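Study this chain:
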Amino acid sequence: MKKLIAILLTLSMLFSLCAVSVSASDDAADLSYAVASDLHYKPHEETLEWYSEDPIFGYANRRAAMENESTLIIDEFLKQCAEDDKIQFVLVPGDLTNDGKVFIDDHKVVAEKFRKFEAETGKQIYVIDGNHDVGMVGEYCETGLAEFKQVYYEFGYKEALSVMEDNCSYTADLSDKYRLIALDSCDPDKSTEDGMNNEKVEWVIEQAKLAYEDGKYPILMMHHNLLDHLPMQRLLSHDFIIRNHTITAEKWANAGIKLVFTGHEHCSDATSYTSTKGNVISDFATTSLTMYPLQYRYIEMREDSIIYEAKTIDKIDTAALKAMVPDYSDEQLAEMDKGLNAFAKQFLKNGVEYRLERGFNDEQLGIKPGDIYYGVVRDVIDGLNDVLNMPLYGEGSAQELAREYGIEIPDSDYKDGWDVATELVSAHYAGSENYPLSSRDVKILLLMVSLVLRNEYSVLSDMEIMQMAEAIILAQGTGHFMDVVFDFLDMDLNSVTPIEYFAVALLSPLLISFATDDGVDDNNGAIDGYGNNDTTGNITSNLSTTFTEILKYLLNMVIYMLKALGYTGA
C-alpha cells in the first residue's frame, strides 16, 4: 500500500512539472488604460442615517456602499486618470449609477462628469450598462435601452462599428491593434440576473471574427461575470455569473478572445479558463469603485503579455463632503483624511455585520423544516449570533466559555466573532485572499461554531452529529470540500471530532467563498498576450490539473480505507 501511495505521488509531481508559468515580457506596451466598475453613483443625502451606535461608522448601510461619498470618489478616480500620462482611455463595465434605471438624472450627472473629463484630457471613456442602469420604462423606471444609449452616446456609441438594436451592445476600435466588444449581459426586466441568450453569445463570436479579419485583437467588456470568482459562485450567487458560462467560455476562448472585464460581484478577482483546444480566456472582475477596497485596474497590453495592477483611491475632498452633508463629524472626516481606504474597510465591515446579523438564517443557508438537521442548525444559528456578539477575550468572553468545553480559541487582536467574520468577507472583496483553512482566523470562526454545538448539544452522540453533517454536505453540494477535514486545524483524520466536522460542513459555503483563493494573484500580475499563441503548454497544464485532482481523490480514498481497516503505518 505504501508503494501505491508513493507511485501516485510521484506521478502527480512529475506531471505537474509540465505546467508553464507566465511572466511579463520586455516588449513595449501597445496600449495602457484603466478599468473601473460599479461606480454606483448616488446623489448624497443632506443628513446621515444611523444604523448602529458606532460614532464613526454607524451610518454604514447593509450594502456597505459609500453612497454619500460616491460623487467625490468618482471625481478622484477621474482626476487620477487625467494625471496619469500612461492611461490612454477608461473602460467602465456597468452599474455607473445606483438608481439610474429609476432616475435618469443620475445618469446625466455621471455623463457630465465623463464629458468634462474627455474635454479636459482628450481621453475616451467607454461604458456598458449594468443591472442598476437600465430597466423597462414605466411608472417606476425612467431609463430604458434607448435612453441609456442616448445619455452615453459620446462614450462608445458615437464611435461604434456595430450596435445591437435590442440591447446596449456595441463594438469600437481602441487602437489600430485592439477592438472593444462591449456586451450588454443584462436583462432590463430582471433585478440582478443576467440576460444572456444564444444570439448574444454568437454575436460576440462574430464580432471577434470580424476583429481578426480587420487585423485587431478583441477585448470583451460586460457587467456579469463570465467565470466563477468564488469556488461555488454558481450556487451561492448565481445571479452574478452568466448562464451556461462554461460552454460560453469554451466558445469565446476558441474565438480568440483572451481578455474579459466584468464587475457586478464587487470583488477583485482574476481567473482563467482553458478550452479543450488550449485557448485561455481570462475574466478580470473589478471591485466596486465606491466600496472597499476603492480600487480600479491599470492594464498594459503588450504583444506577448498583458500586465495588470490594482490602483487605490485613498483620498477625497473632505471639505467638499462636509459642505454637502453637514452631519459628518470632525472625527469622521479626520479618519477619512488619515486614509480613505482604511476608513472604507471599517465601513464595509460594519455594513456587512449589519447585513449578516439579519441575513444569517436558515433560509439563506437553504435549510428547510423537515430536514434531519433542521432543529440543530436552527439552534446553532441562534447560538452563533449570540456568541459572535460576545467579547472574544477577557472576562465573560467566548474564549472563557470555550475553555469550559476544552476548546482553546487562539489569541488575536479581534474584538469579537463578527470582527473575524467580516475580516474574511473584506478579504474576498479586496482580492488576493490569504486565509488558508488552517489559518488562525478561520480556526477562530470554526471553533466558535464548535463551541455553540458543544454548549447546546452535548447530549448528542457522535453518530447523530456525523449523520447531520453528511446531510448538510449533501444538501449544499459541498462534497468536494472533504479536503477541508484534512486541513482543518492541521490535524489528521483521527484528530477531527464529529463536532468539528459538523462545523466545517455548516460553514463550508462561507469558507469557500471568502477564505480561499485559486492561487492566482487577483490584483497584480501578468497573463499571456494576444501574440502568444502556443497552446501546447496550456493543453498539458489542463491535463496535469485534471490528473492531479484524480490522484488527490484516489489518495484520499486510500487513506480512508486504511483508517477504516485500522492501519496505523507501522
